[in-house]
Amino acid sequence: MPLPKMPTKPATMLLAKDYPQAEPGKSPVRPASAKTDADLEDLISGQAVPTPKATKARKAKAANEPAPVQAVAPAEARDADAPLARGPSRKPKQGPIAPAPAARLLEPDADQPHPAKHKPVEVNVKSSTSRKADRSGTTKVFVLDTNVLMHDPTSLFRFEEHDVYLPMMTLEELDNHKKGMSEVARNARQVSRTLDALIANIDDDAIEAGIPLAKLGNKDAKGRLFFQTKLDAAPLPEGLPSGKADNQILGVVRALEEQMGGRAIVLVSKDINMRIKARALGLPAEDYFNDHVLEDTDLLYSGIVQLPDDFWTKHGKDMESWQENKNGNSATYYRMTGPLIPTLLVNQFVFMEPKNGESPFYGQVKQITGKTAVFQTLRDYSHNKNNVWGITARNREQNFALNLLMNPECDFVSLLGQAGTGKTLLALAAGLAQVLETKQYNEIIVTRVTVPVGEDIGFLPGTEEEKMSPWMGAFDDNLEVLMKGDGDAGDWGRAATQDLIRSRIKIKSLNFMRGRTFVNKFLIIDEAQNLTPKQMKTLVTRAGPGTKILCLGNIAQIDTPYLTEGSSGLTYVVDRFKGWSHGGHVTLARGERSRLADHASEVL
User: Between the CA of residue 368 and those of 80, 373, 408, what are the distances in Å?
Assistant: First the structure.
């Protein structure tokens, strides 16, 4: 279901219209900014919703001109069970291309405290050669650059019915990068083992004719694998050094166009400069985007949905309600049936804030069976009597987050938000309360990716914990806030409290996580947006009995090279864990750090 946009201003509370408006009988839910189906198509294709004047102009133009036919994306591209969103072989949407950023600016909304700012949407544009082949229904030949194989070792099997061609220079570069313990070296060795298994028991003549990619059991790969068997590449324009690997691969693409005149030859590379050079030479080139979880991160699951004003009218006819006492807290449950229920997910938060002065409703979906759902009311952590280690929720989203963090039945929680929204503070407060007060967990384990923002400062002395301490400045800052404690305790009491807290918090490095099992631990993964999906899987699978894992991050601040908002491990787990009965996600919307930080996020 389409979900609300990431907050454009971390210092501004999300308005009610920025959340998805649930409409009975319609799935997915249309965002409030999309008034018509045409506007919804514009949002999905990456275009801004036009203003009312532009809408009238478009309707007037549509009355005089026939509407263009828009192709529907293939069903397999929308398959929820597929591990990846789509690859270069997907049929493109024949929708309008997003205009330049200047044309995307909307008129300021009177309801918004500040003019809306819209980030440019990444649109994966296919080459004209690839689009022609899609329209004619013919298969293509994808020439893979080395960085594609080292980025995704299984990319050989991601092109469906199309053929894959490997130049000899690609094999040479794989051989050059196979040594070492880095992720790139491991991927290069995995690709080499896969290629060895494919060419096993194959005659030389069969290699010339192509090797079926489905030989190893990958049924989705219906094409064939071709190797470069002749070292005669087409000449490139003068001035390009022939000894460079990229230029030799470009020569292979040009030679293939001459040899296979009737087929579409497309170069696939993660190297932007390589694609630019290819397009400048008139060669079709595309990015490899099969690793993207979502085409547009604005559609990322937020964990929150606003109920329509007529929700109780249409769903409260045969409503049942009762109270239960779980984990020492009393909660009210509602069972109701209606057309809106199938659009919701388990553990999703719902809210309704009437404008006529009635009390608001905040709830969480606990169970869905067909068109019947069970809602549970939330504990109000904004009240001081329900504070968590002295911390209370300052806004609606923080209250939702604390309900997940303090729920022992929720084993996996992901918090996403801009700087200053309180992700780390809420996680630490919940961890200390459940480790030291309720003794739900034994200790807190904190880890993060050690990716520097600027230049690396070199090797660090000391033990593992001492080496990791410079990376944990954010946790130290939050611990200072949490360890203020009671002012009447005196210096000795505060020192004893600090020693107790420090003894229950362990800082670990990601490099030594493989093979470990954490039992009854409160594991916090900070800066999770810098993790790849493979690294995220390695971390989450470390959880043993009674362990709770928290993933914190901001996908707008990715420091890892070759990782984007759509392919980040944080995006991956948010999308994969939605709807699980023991997992939850909340996108925090409002900055609560300080008025200076809020204003800086706004104007800088």
Answer: 18, 4, 20
